[in-house]
Amino acid sequence: MTEQDQPEELSAEEISEQKAVRLGKRERLIESGVGAYPVGVPITTTISDVRSTYADIETDTATGVTVGLAGRVVHSRIGGKLCFASLQAGDGQRLQVMVSLAEVGEESLDNWKALVDLGDHVFVSGEVISSRRGELSVMVKDWAIASKAILPLPNLHTELSDEGRVRSRYLDLIVREQARFTVRARAAVNASLRSTFTSHEYLEVETPMLQVMHGGASARPFSTHSNAFDTELFLRIAPELYLKRAVVGGIDRVYEINRNFRNEGADTTHSPEFAMLEAYQAYGDYNQMADLTQELVQKAAIAVSGDTIVTWADGTEYDLGGEWDRISMYDSLNAAAGLSITPQTPVEDLLGYAATAGVEVHLPTHGKLVEELWEHYVKVDLVRPTFVMDFPVDTSPLVRAHRSIEGVVEKWDLYIRGFELATGYSELVDPVVQRERFVAQAKLAGKGDVEAMPLDEEFLRALEHGMPPTGGMGMGIDRLLMAITGLGIRETILFPLVK
Q1: Domain containing 101: what range?
Q2: How confident is the model at residue 156 (pLDDT cuts 50, 70, 90)?
Q3: Is residue 141 part of a domain?
Q4: Which of 26, 78, 300, 359 could disulfide-link 354, Cβ–Cβ 3.0 to 4.6 Å?
Q5: Which helix (H) or strand (E) element contains residue 18?
Q6: Known catalysed reaction(s) (predicted)?
Q7: Tens digit of each residue's pLDDT (9 = 90 or more) over 176-223
Q8: 459 in a structural domain
Q9: 390 is in an annotated binding site
Q10: Pair (313, 443) in one structural domain
Q11: Is residue 178 domain-shared with residue 132, that is, in the same domain?
C-alpha cells in the first residue's frame, strides 16, 4: 500500500515507518545536492491568482503562459508516464499539476515518483492548461521540493477530533476549511473594530500586562515574580485602570485590543487567556457606549458575513441587525419570577428566594444574589441581542451610581446567544466614593472572596487629579467571534491553552 492510498487512520507504527522512509528521502535529496529545504524557490504567481485569471478557460486548452508556483501536496496519483497531484495553498485553494515523461524527462519523473510524498511543499514551473476533463492545471516542465514533510498528513476525508483540532491547530488549518475561515474572520473582525473606532476619533494604546496590582475586574489573577525588581507581579485581568489613567491625562477617546489573563475555570465560553477590547469616552455615558457597542458588533458581522444576519457553523442563521432590546435587571427578574425584588430587598429575603429556586451563592451579598437569580430566571430565555441594564451597586465597584434609581449603578451587560458578550458603564470618577468602594471590596477579600479588588492607591491618586464624566465598555474578542460564527471559544482562539 502506498501513502497515496492511505487508510482511514494511520497507526502509530505506520506513522513511525513512514517517518523513517521520509527521513531516508530527505537524506537522498541532501546528498544529491538538490536539498530538502531550500532557502527559496522562483515563484512568479500563486494558486489563487492562477485560478482567478483562468477561471473561464475552455476544456483541453493550452494558454502558452508559463508560471512558477508552490503548494502543499494533498493528493497524488502515480502513473507510468504521467503523474497527477493537487497542490494546496495556505488559504485552502487547490490546483492540479501534471508531471509527464514527455515534458520533464525520465530522470525527473522517476525522482517525482520516488521522492514526493503527501504533505511535501513542492515548487512547479510550467504551462497553464486545461486538461481533457476540463481541470485547470499546470503542465510541469520543472519542479523542486520546497520543504520535505517528515510526518504524514492526517486523512483529508476524516475530520480531526475536537481535541486533535485544538492540540494540533496547524493540522486543523491544513485539512479543514472552517478553521481557515475562522482565522480570516477574526482578522476581519479586528480590522472592522479598529476602523469603527477610528471613525469615532478613538486612539488605540497599549497598557501593561505585568502589573504590581491587579484590578479593573472581579477575577482571580495569575501571579509571577520579577527577578529584576524582586517583586511579585500579576498578569493583568483587565486594562481598565490604566486606560482610565489615559483619560485623566487627556486622551478623551481611547481603546485597547489585547490579552487578559484570569486564573479561573475553562469551558465553552471561558478561557484563562483571552483577547479583550476595552474603550473609554470622556463626556460619554453607558447609553452612548451601548450605541457604540451595537455599531461595533454589527459592522464586524458585516465584515465577516456581508450582512448582519450571520450563518453559524451548524447552519443556523442569527440576526444581529436592528435596534437591540434594553431591559432592566430588576424589572425583568421580577416579571420572570413573579417577585417584587428592589435594590433595598434584604439579603435574608433573597436567600429565601434563592433556596426556593435551587440557586447557590458563595459569600452571598445582595448584588450577587440578585445577579444569580436573574441568570436563573431570565438569562436562559434571552434569544435576541439584549442589553441588561442597571446592576446592583455592590457587584460593580468601578461604576457610577444611577442618576435616578437608588441602590443600582449605570451598568449594562450585553447578552447574545445566551452568553455575556460585553459590558458597559457610566464610569465612577469621584475619588472619594471610589475609595469607599475599594474599602468595601477589601472587606470582601478579608472574608475569602478571591475575586475582590484590592485598594489601588495609584489609581485613586490619578482620579484625584480629575477625571471627566466618562462612559466605558469592554468586549471579549473571542466571544464576538462566537456570536458571529456560532463556534465554541476554543475554536475561535487560534492556539487555545490545553492540558
Answers
A1: 12-147
A2: confident
A3: yes
A4: 359
A5: helix 12-31
A6: tRNA(Lys) + L-lysine + ATP = L-lysyl-tRNA(Lys) + AMP + diphosphate
A7: 999 999 999 999 999 999 999 999 999 999 999 998 888 777 788 899
A8: yes
A9: no
A10: yes
A11: no
